[in-house]
Amino acid sequence: MKHDENCIFCKIIAGQIPSYKVYEDENVLAFLDISQVTKGHTLLIPKEHHQDIFELPEQAAASLFAAAPKIANAINATFEPEGLNLLNNNKEAAGQSVFHYHMHFLPRYGKGDGFG
Ligand code: 5GP
Ligand code: ZN
């Protein structure tokens, strides 16, 4: 499996950096973002290291989207938001700061919830 020893998210997958896990299967991992933009802010990543959407193999994309509704429902059950944004930044110019593909799940609680 593709791994980058300098990548923070690869270290989380390897258990070298602790994280609060929301969901895990053979191919993907979801965990709480260290900086909670809104309550329950979660990141979903492939276990294989791929930098961004431009380098994401079809199989990894399929695994991510297969898991996405499960994570959305887990967030709903735990945090009871009013809505949910899914976001993905690709490349520095688009706001990407960790270069291991990830999807943000941002639970929304109405006006003044800290996002948008
Ligand atoms: P980006 O800006 O690349 O779209 O998002 C990267 C996200 O990773 C940020 O929201 C940031 O808070 C989160 N993050 C960075 N380092 C860590 C970490 O060590 N643990 C966790 N759980 N999240 C992290
Ligand atoms: Zn990585």
UniProtKB/TrEMBL annotation:
<dbReference type="GO" id="GO:0032259">
    <property type="term" value="P:methylation"/>
</dbReference>
<protein>
    <submittedName>
        <fullName>HIT family protein</fullName>
        <ecNumber>2.1.1.-</ecNumber>
    </submittedName>
</protein>
<keyword id="KW-0808">Transferase</keyword>
<feature type="short sequence motif" description="Histidine triad motif">
    <location>
        <begin position="100"/>
        <end position="104"/>
    </location>
</feature>
<keyword id="KW-0489">Methyltransferase</keyword>
<feature type="domain" description="HIT">
    <location>
        <begin position="8"/>
        <end position="116"/>
    </location>
</feature>
<dbReference type="GO" id="GO:0008168">
    <property type="term" value="F:methyltransferase activity"/>
</dbReference>
